[in-house]
Amino acid sequence: MSLQLVKQLWYYRGFIFGSVKREFQSRYRNSLFGSLWTVLNPLASISIYLIIFSRLMNSRLPGTTDSMAYGIYLCSGILTWGLFSDIINRCLNVFVDNANLIKKLSFPRICLPIIIVISAGLTFIIAFGLFLIFLLLAGKFPARQIWALPVILLIQMSFSVGLGIILGIANVFFRDVSQFIGIFLQLWFWFTPIVYPITILPAFIQKLVMVNPMTHIMAAYQTILVNGSRPQWINLIWVAIFVILLCFVGVRMYQQRCGEIVDEL
What we know:
By secondary structure, this protein is an all-alpha fold. Helix content is 75%, strand content 0%.
């Protein structure tokens, strides 16, 4: 990201954080429980993953006898994938949905994806924080490796926003992009070891799945939260390099097309 772009984002920080605040307020306006839903919704999901799958369905991860292991594995994958897909889906139409705002006001258009990332990140932190509280109460809290989670989260969110900006710009000029990505994300979800461990796949399929950057990001979360072990940093380094390149492409694409976006809308 160029220094000029960083200065622009800093200059418009009031607009960015004000927009995030308004989004949270409008989301639960006229709601009886208001912002309490930000806690109730993830609480219900976490309870389903940890109690129903681990206790009632008695699901087990291969090679472990821990009754909670699969629930933790599933919950860590689905919560973090939810953040990724939420950012991608919202960035897809961010310029199209805000066409009137873009035409009426003068501000860096890249503020819009940043608003989405911050908003989605705050919602995720609430949900993931509840998950960590569950682990703490269950005696499964990965205290020794917890420091690594923010690093992995930073890589994941950078990947999400870099890809989201590219897709959002592409969708302005080719509206079929949003339809295609909706289908592609469903396939991508099942191509990522979230509801199943990669070890159950045939060897040649495992090699294909390992090409997927989200495989390594999910594996890092699952290794920490399920096993309390250190993630495979060498795999994450390669993912981080790819993410940096992706973000560079996204920023360059924005700089080259930001003027055309207004005309196309």
